[in-house]
Write a structure and sequence with these properties.
586 residues, alpha/beta, globular
């Protein structure tokens, strides 16, 4: 069975430069000019506040990133995705934006941003910026103006304000819950001091939803896209891309009605949900595509869209954002049959749109996959059941007896090596190249994630994957900075530090470096062919140039197929592929 990323009814085609074996021979400047660079790129996500601190204030910053560009180049990545760096009160880790066209003073200045972009480009690394279009912060000048303006004013129309229910408007317009817990509506006090209207916030109350039916909002975001593109941003990761447009025609559905019609993801499979995944959102992205295409090479974009699988393709359309995250592998257990089904289906979806697929195991919102894979796997008795997400383990306090650290590490290494061989772009999260585990032991007094405070006893939050990186084996913050770290680092971080792994044979860092280097050298057309082994615990596929990947999901070592072994995620055992191990051959 051969899978290829081609448009429907088209003959197999070779896509120039970035999808062929010539990639390894391109200079840094040629890679930067390649319009197809994103199709099979290795993209490294940086959470700026937790990457590197240059001034000792305990918070990572842009100068800290610039100082580590040589590390990023040596890692072998193609692009950096920068999580929000805008001015923010951090009600949601920077996803509550005060000003879309500036840098948070705690992280640096626009001049620091320009310096960072120049350094990355000088190293042949592209720059992707996170953009947050669904909501601003409640400190944005627009929202402050809305609060100071009367009902029905143009300032109010930039957001979603509604009168409340009840004789005095004392009840919210609907009973919907926000993603972070509690109601999705917040009542304001009018300028004259009386109780007033309610505004909608799908997320935290500090994140009021923008009104994308207002032309002013659309024009301003086009301005923002050009602002950052002119400063050297090569692409955009679009936060909750499926949540911009709304239909709040009365009567509003109840949360019970919404829940009954849900498909297990955000929205309905027909696009009629009042605020998730509405068809009208693609009109916005068609306009964005026009802006992207004003540049040479065109700016790229990838949608974070937690939508029904049948609805994902429109976000990845060449007439829209061009690419969309699929989180299917992230939500799967370490299971051969699941992996094969997910890879097959997603490559077929990519082929149908002419896009390339995306693969990811960890990011700033989920428990690190080295930890998830060390926890007991989830029973799949019910259709649609997701894999182990680690949330219950965190909520229980991270009991050590439930976590097999060595097994989780071994499986994570095998999974990553497999993923890096699959056609499409690979998204890596800072620290996974060190094999970092989730930090469970964060005191309540030091937690920051709003989901923890709004869902106490239900969810512990995402702080554990956002703990600042360890660069050195010793020091108050393991080399993160001279003034400690904004989230506490455990003592066991020492053995995962860059300093401990740099140049150490068999370390996870050296595995990632070797894999990414080889990936550039071996990269070929966006196709794979499954090779049946007769063993359901083995996943074996071949790329068009003879590059093979074999993963043993089982418990016993197996014979390898013929070919030269190029790289393994763990040492072979008497020439055989051990359990929970991937090998690349040619």
């Amino acid at each position: 069975m051969t899978l290829t990323s081609n448009k429907p009814n088209a003959q197999k085609r070779k896509i120039p430069l970035s999808t062929t074996a010539t990639l390894a021979t391109l200079s840094d400047s040629d890679r930067l000019a390649d319009p197809n660079w994103w199709r099979q790129a290795a993209v490294y996500q940086i959470y700026p506040r937790s990457f590197a601190d240059s001034n000792g204030d305990g918070i990572g910053d842009l100068k800290g990133i610039t100082a580590k560009v040589s590390y990023l180049k040596a890692l072998g990545i193609d692009a950096v995705w920068l999580s929000p760096f805008y001015p923010s009160a951090l009600a949601d880790g920077g996803y509550d934006v005060d000003d879309y066209r500036d840098v948070d003073p705690k992280l640096g200045t626009l001049a620091d941003f320009d310096e960072m972009a120049k350094a990355l480009h000088g190293a042949g690394i592209k720059l992707i910026a996170d953009i947050v279009p669904n909501h601003s912060s409640d400190r944005h000048e627009w929202f402050k103006e809305a609060l100071a303006s009367p009902k029905g004013s143009p300032a109010r129309d930039r957001y979603i304000f509604r009168d409340g229910k009840g004789p005095n408007g004392e009840f919210p317009p609907s009973d919907w819950d926000s993603v972070f817990g509690g109601p999705a509506w917040e009542r304001i006090t009018e300028p004259d001091g009386t109780p007033g209207q309610w505004y909608m916030h799908i997320f935290a109350k500090e994140q009021p939803d923008l009104n994308w039916s207002n032309r002013e909002i659309r024009e301003d975001f086009l301005k923002t896209l050009r602002f950052w593109s002119d400063r050297g941003v090569d692409g955009f990761r679009v936060d909750v891309a499926h949540a911009l447009t709304k239909d709040l025609t009365e009567p509003l559905l109840s949360k019970l009605e919404l829940s009954a019609a849900n498909t297990g993801v955000d929205g309905f499979d027909d696009g009629t949900h009042p605020f998730w995944d509405r068809d009208e959102v693609h009109e916005i992205y068609a306009e964005w595509r026009e802006v992207f295409n004003e540049y040479n090479p065109p700016r790229t974009a990838v949608a974070e869209a937690w939508v029904h699988a049948t609805r994902r393709a429109r976000y990845a359309s060449p007439q829209g954002l061009g690419q969309a995250f699929n989180f299917d592998l992230l939500q799967a257990d370490f299971d051969a049959a699941e992996y094969k089904e997910i890879i097959t289906r997603n490559l077929a979806e990519a082929a149908a749109t002419g896009a390339s697929s995306t693969w990811v195991f960890s990011n700033h919102d989920v428990v690190r996959h080295a930890t998830r894979y060390g926890l007991p796997q989830v029973s799949k008795d019910k259709a649609g059941t997701k894999g182990q997400d680690g949330k219950d383990w965190l909520l229980a306090g991270g009991p050590k007896e439930q976590l097999d650290v060595e097994l989780g590490q071994r499986r994570a290494r095998a999974a990553t090596l497999l993923m890096l061989a699959v056609p499409g772009s690979a998204y890596l999260y800072q620290g996974e190249e060190l094999g970092l585990q989730e930090v469970a032991e964060i005191p309540e007094s030091e937690r920051q994630d709003p989901s923890f405070f709004r869902n106490k006893g239900v969810e512990i939050g995402r702080d554990g994957c956002r703990v600042p990186l360890p660069w050195k084996v010793e020091g108050t913050s393991f080399g993160f900075g001279e003034g400690g770290s904004h989230l506490p680092q455990p003592d066991w971080f020492s053995k995962y530090a860059v300093e401990a792994q740099d140049g150490t044979e068999g370390s996870t860092l050296e595995l990632y470096r070797a894999a990414l280097k080889l990936r550039h050298e071996l990269q070929t057309d966006e196709e794979l062919e499954w090779v049946e082994s007769g063993n359901p615990e083995i996943l074996h596929f071949r790329r068009p140039n003879g590059w093979q990947s074999v993963t043993n999901f089982g418990g016993t070592a197996v014979e390898l197929p013929a070919g030269k072994v190029l790289l393994t995620s763990a040492p072979l055992e008497d020439g055989k592929l051990p359990a929970n191990t991937t090998a690349w051959l040619r």
